[in-house]
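Thread: "does anyone have the structure for this chain?"

Original post by V.I.:
We have the sequence but no experimental structure in hand. Need at least a predicted one for the grant figures.
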Amino acid sequence: MTNHQAAIVGSQLDLYAPVFCIISDRRVFRSRSPQLFRRVIAKLGLNASYVPFMVQPDNFPKAMESLRVLNIAGANITVPYKEKVVDFMDELSEGANIIGAVNTVVCKDGKLKGYNTNAIGIMDALNEAGIEVADKTALVFGTGGAARAAVFILNWLRAAKVWVVGRDYEKAARLASHVAGSPMKLDRLEQFSEQVQLLINATSVSSPDEAPELAKTVSKLKCKVSLLVYDLNYGRCKNMWQAWAQAHNLPFVDGTSTLAHQASRTFALWTGIKVDPGEFIC
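Reply from O.Q.:
Generated one for you, tokens below.
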């Protein structure tokens, strides 16, 4: 989009000073999204705002109705609500419908449409890291919305096989059945010694003190990873996935690039303005 086109879109947005937001539980306050979106909004000179909303699980239905009542223009949905929010949408994009999770909501004329920019953000980040997914095998940790997006995009990119590991095996099996993958019990990991090219953490856990038992399991992981360890989280001082990668002389990337790419796509859905993903990196 040219500067002139952006100015036109910006003037249209200024007519009602839209409010954008991110919804999560208490973890909303460690998200970088408010800082990044506010910076881009200011740089473009838009009369808009972006705010974090901490919502308790029991109040989530009311929060979704509030998007309509308050005429919120757009919302980011993050853990633990990416799957739960699906039931509150009036319409889903094709990708969000297949994945069964939403991270971006566009609110227009009292209607809510859900999108999933996580999956494309993961694809963009893998491309940026120089990873060709086709015919590769991946091991994905997690059973929530981020894991659904990861498994979906890996299959869409023609991965040879995607293993799905979760602390709750039944959830891993349902995800694998819904999106296409092979479930594995967490307690099987110590015996799992197959060759995989990609190890992806799509849980919300990266620091050992967040889940000591999972950290212990990861430290004993014996599978042979040849290309990349990829953690969808970011900003953790002690990162057990990074430590494992370093111990095995493997490249490691966190979710900073993913966040930037998905934020760029989200912003375009909300405003019609295409912003370079680099603008969403601290």
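V.I.: this helps a lot. The radius of gyration is 19 Å.
O.Q.: and The CA atoms of residues 82 and 228 lie 26 Å apart.
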